[in-house]
């Protein structure tokens, strides 16, 4: 982006002259937005593919209008197919399928109810008809709106409930003038099915984005981030006490922050993943909820890491001798926990059972036990005040919590591995080399 | 709900006989759902009012069909007004206004672009026309779909971008057969404006739900929950050491958990609140982002409280004498911080500046200073092992962090008070009596 703000004769030359005459402020803004767009596309090239997919699906569905025989069959209602493609085609297969099924079944149900309401109203004479219809619409929409407040409905069927109200109102209200409510309902359903099928085919056949795979990657990445922090902490904690002047690469300090607030995206992804059919190594009824459990444990661990991160920045200097005593154990515990978390991330990512994390967890528990006995037997020297030992003791206490937490995450991942039938290997996954 | 599962002759009698003949399992399910619905309505009666509002708005907009002169003016396109009401009328005023403005302006822009595309295509002859139209639709939808990936656009204009694509495709595609694209665009815009106006009037005039007020209440409630935890902790921590056998009321232990994961709802509410016009004590351009800042600080505080909550449940028994020494300071610090947080919550809730939290914050800082000097001067007895002092020291360290955090929250609330022109009072807000 820094280079983009300076014109050069290279690839940017072709569009740079367009901006030449703009005021400086506008020029900066344009360059800024272009940089952001560039980053969005580079970070996730599937976004660009998705945009092309939307364009393609819409061009396909427009054929209902452009090709004469198709137009003769669908008439004006072809427009519903166009709307359907735009509304249903989501970034992920799960999203598309969820919206498509919601839309189709809600249209079916809403249309049927609408035709029923029409018949009911027709029985009540010319004056009674609009009153009965109005009452039906009012009662049904109020009831469905209330259903939307149920959290279970909101999570999976919210779109369907909206479409149910839409279709019911449209069929029953416009049927009042059009006479033939059945035809409206039928045409709407047919075109919506056509739209959904086109959206689904484009979504699944062209570079499909499976939200289940993304969820798995997210959970694995979160464990990896926690692991990186712990490994980084292990190194930094050692170096601080060794020589306070060395500047530490603090990039690992930021990575875990996104884990603190990942609850909403994890839940959304699980809800979408449940719509997806079996594909590749993900069978239908894959235990998605177990991923949520691992995610929750990882988040609990991240709270403790947040505290640990605060201790790194703490200003109170600990007594050197205390730090030296406890430090080696803490270093060992965080390093081994970090390795275990990275192994767990690899287990999830590759869907392959491994036993090498047990080794690291045992190591970290061993270090914790050493620390405990060290704390139990090692008496303090007379000259040490409580204030001097606070930082080291607080770190030790948090690190011991993290060891427990890592073990719990490991149990949850093992449960996931057995529920989702992960592959077994005899040779353990290669552990990353120590930096 | 326990009483609902047993038939009685009271008010339930009238519907109980309907379930009498159902199998036991279905009966339980029905009772279960009814109980949930009852709870949803009782917890938030505004939900019921919202349902009635939707029903009313829809009945109003149906008049476009039922009343002959209106129908003669709007014809079939009145159906767009019905859809608009259903899609735009949200639970909150901010939500309704945001969607309404998005929908109106996107329709205007999309319609204009669609008519433009029509004219462009008409220039390219009979064979070229569908090709040019198809290309236009493809390019515009792909570009707009990409725009939806920008986080800033997604947060506030996502719905507008969808409607832009919808209207553009509809006008340019269906205009190909209908000849008169301008009329389609015009009718669609007109009916959408009618629908939006009806939705907005119903939303604002009948028991309006201002999301800004809800946001303020949420932030205040979060601070209150943290305060309750700290006050509860202060009591429980004392009693544990006094007599381990006393059972503690642990309800306060759960309240703060919702603060840990409140980020998403806070951000959503701020985005909606920014759409709302000034009302009551909330002027236009109310500093909503400052609420987000207070919320973030409260969340950081809740991470520390999560750790503190873990210490309460910790099994390692501390050396009695150490606990006694440190305990009084910790008790004082948590109690005063808790009171300060409750004062801050009251400040936000009543929008009235108060200085009484300064008093509590000073107290808690004083207690922290006492603790520090106690730790600095108080040497340990020879017989004490490190293990025995870990729990007390870890609690002390976390509590000191919380005192700092509370002060930071207080600063953010003061900034909010000056940005949002909170009222000043001379007499301090009444503090709740100590239990």
Automatic annotation (TrEMBL), chains A, B:
The chain crosses the membrane at residues 48-67, 79-98, 131-150, 157-177, 189-211. The keyword DNA repair does not apply. It comes from the Eukaryota. It is found in: Membrane. Its main location: membrane. Belongs to the aromatic acid exporter (TC 2.A.85) family. This is Aluminum-activated malate transporter 8. It comes from Vitis vinifera. The lineage of its organism: Eukaryota, Viridiplantae, Streptophyta, Embryophyta, Tracheophyta.
């Amino acid at each position: 982006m820094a280079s983009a703000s300076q014109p050069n004769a290279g690839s940017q030359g072709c569009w740079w002259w367009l901006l030449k005459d703009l005021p400086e402020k506008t020029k900066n803004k344009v360059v800024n937005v272009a940089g952001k767009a560039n980053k969005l596309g580079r970070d996730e090239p599937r976004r660009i593919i998705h945009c092309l997919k939307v364009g393609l699906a819409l061009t396909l569905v427009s054929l209902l209008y452009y090709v004469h025989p198709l137009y003769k069959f669908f008439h004006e209602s072809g427009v519903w197919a166009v709307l359907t493609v735009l509304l249903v085609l989501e970034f992920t297969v799960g999203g598309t399928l969820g919206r498509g099924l919601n839309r189709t079944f809600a249209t079916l149900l809403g249309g049927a109810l609408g035709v029923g309401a029409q018949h009911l109203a027709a029985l009540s004479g010319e004056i009674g008809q609009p009153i009965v219809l109005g009452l039906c619409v009012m009662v049904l929409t109020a009831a469905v709106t209330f259903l939307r407040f149920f959290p279970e409905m909101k999570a999976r069927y919210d779109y369907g409930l909206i479409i149910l109200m839409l279709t019911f109102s449209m069929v029953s209200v416009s049927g009042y003038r059009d006479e033939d409510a059945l035809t409206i309902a039928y045409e709407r359903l047919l075109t919506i099915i056509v739209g959904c099928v086109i959206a689904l085919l484009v979504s699944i056949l062209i570079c499909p984005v499976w939200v289940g795979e993304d969820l798995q990657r997210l959970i694995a990445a979160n464990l990896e981030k926690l692991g990186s922090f712990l490994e980084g902490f292990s190194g930094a904690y050692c170096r601080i006490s060794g020589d306070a002047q060395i500047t530490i690469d603090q990039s690992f300090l930021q990575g875990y922050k996104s884990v603190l607030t990942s609850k909403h995206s994890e839940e959304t992804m699980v809800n979408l993943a449940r719509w997806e059919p079996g594909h590749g190594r993900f069978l239908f009824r894959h235990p998605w909820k177990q991923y949520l459990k691992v995610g929750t444990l990882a988040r609990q661990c991240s709270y403790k890491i947040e505290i640990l991160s605060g201790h790194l920045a703490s200003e109170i200097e600990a007594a050197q001798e205390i730090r030296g005593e406890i430090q080696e154990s803490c270093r060992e515990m965080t390093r081994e926990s970090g390795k275990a978390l990275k192994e767990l991330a690899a287990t999830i990512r590759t869907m392959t059972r491994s036993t090498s994390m047990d080794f690291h967890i045992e190591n970290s528990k061993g270090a914790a036990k050493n620390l405990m006995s060290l704390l139990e037997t090692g008496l303090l020297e007379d000259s040490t005040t409580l204030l001097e030992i606070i930082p080291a003791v607080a770190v030790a206490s948090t690190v011991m919590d993290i060891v427990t937490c890592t073990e719990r995450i490991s149990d949850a991942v093992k449960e996931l591995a057995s529920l989702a039938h992960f592959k077994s290997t005899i040779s353990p996954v290669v552990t990353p080399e120590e930096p």
